[in-house]
């Protein structure tokens, strides 16, 4: 597949790019700064200047000819609530609109656990959860995209385990590497289309969990 990864320079984005390249996909890495390009070229991906503050019509130019778009971007913990709104919410929505303009049907987004339950939103991350909730809702109700929404638990940087629990009743942790592995496998698994899938580390091999996720 030809896959465009938004937020390719982020912690999960880098892993997604690497795993897609490893399995032979043609990967286009959306980057904000020119100095990020060389690392992706060395990794076998094609870097593309991409700014989520641009208009959907401009973003769509980068998506022409793609088979899929993966949204793994985030404003980051060092920015204010304004950028959380502009990137995690409006940026996500604009990328969905851009995908539709460009005629790309397959769209996958990395969200967060418990976005549908405001009572479980952490006080320190409420603006982030607001953004994720409304971006997810827009994707489900306002687009015709073949979407998959992944809602991982608390992200950690441990080595990947290769095993997860999908749609757990309680929260938990998951490694960024396992989120990336699941995201890459789900992208080419048709049964994940139209699904919102919560994820934490568990006991089910990812290849099995992807096929069983509903």
Walkthrough of the structure:
The chain is of the alpha/beta class. It contains seven helices and eleven strands. It has helices at residues 11-22, 37-43, 56-63, 81-102, 126-142, 176-187, 206-212, and strands at residues 2-6, 26-31, 46-49, 68-71, 106-110, 146-152, 154-156, 163-166, 173-175, 195-201, 204-205. The strands form two sheets. A nine-stranded mixed β-sheet has the order 3-2-1-4-5-6-10-8-11, with helices on both faces. Strands 7-9 form a two-stranded parallel sheet. Helix 6 packs across helix 7 (206-212). The longest helix has 22 residues, at 81-102. The protein is globular and about 40 Å long. The two termini are 23 Å apart.
Summarize the structure.
The protein is of the alpha/beta class and 214 residues long. It is 40% helix and 23% strand. Strand 2 (26-31), helix 2 and strand 3 (46-49) form a beta-alpha-beta unit.
Could you state the order of secondary-structure elements as H and E? EHEHEHEHEHEEEEHEEH
Strand content: 15-25%
Please bin the fraction of helical residues.
25-40%
The side-by-side strand order for the widest beta sheet comes to 3-2-1-4-5-6-10-8-11
Specify Rg, calculated over alpha carbons. Answer: 16 Å
Structural class: alpha/beta
Mean pLDDT: 96
| Largest sheet features | 9 strands, mixed
Overall, the morphology is globular
Head-to-tail CA distance between termini: 23 Å
- Give a count of the beta strands, DSSP E runs of length 2 or more: 11
What's the tally of helices?
7
Which regions contain 5 or more consecutive residues with pLDDT less than 50? none
Organism: Lactiplantibacillus songbeiensis
Domain NAD(P)-binding: 7-190
Protein name: SDR family oxidoreductase
């Amino acid at each position: 597949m030809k896959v465009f990864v938004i937020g390719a320079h982020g912690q999960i984005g880098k892993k997604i790019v690497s795993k897609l390249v490893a399995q032979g996909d043609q990967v286009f890495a959306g980057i904000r700064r020119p100095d990020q390009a060389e690392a992706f070229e060395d990794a076998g991906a094609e870097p593309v200047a991409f700014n989520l503050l641009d208009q959907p019509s401009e973003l769509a130019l980068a998506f022409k000819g793609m088979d899929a778009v993966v949204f793994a971007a985030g404003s980051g913990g060092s920015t204010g609530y304004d950028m959380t709104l502009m990137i995690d919410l409006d940026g996500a929505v604009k990328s969905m609109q851009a995908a539709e303009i460009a005629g790309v049907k397959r769209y996958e987004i990395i969200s967060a656990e418990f976005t549908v339950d405001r009572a479980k939103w952490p006080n320190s991350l409420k603006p982030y959860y607001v953004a994720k909730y409304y971006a997810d809702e827009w994707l489900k109700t306002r687009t015709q995209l073949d979407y998959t929404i992944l809602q991982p638990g608390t992200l950690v940087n441990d080595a990947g385990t290769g095993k997860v629990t999908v749609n757990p009743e309680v929260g938990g942790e998951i490694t960024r590497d396992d989120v990336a592995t699941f995201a890459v496998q789900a992208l080419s698994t048709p049964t994940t289309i139209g699904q919102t899938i919560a994820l934490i580390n568990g006991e089910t091999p990812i290849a099995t969990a992807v096929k069983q996720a509903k």
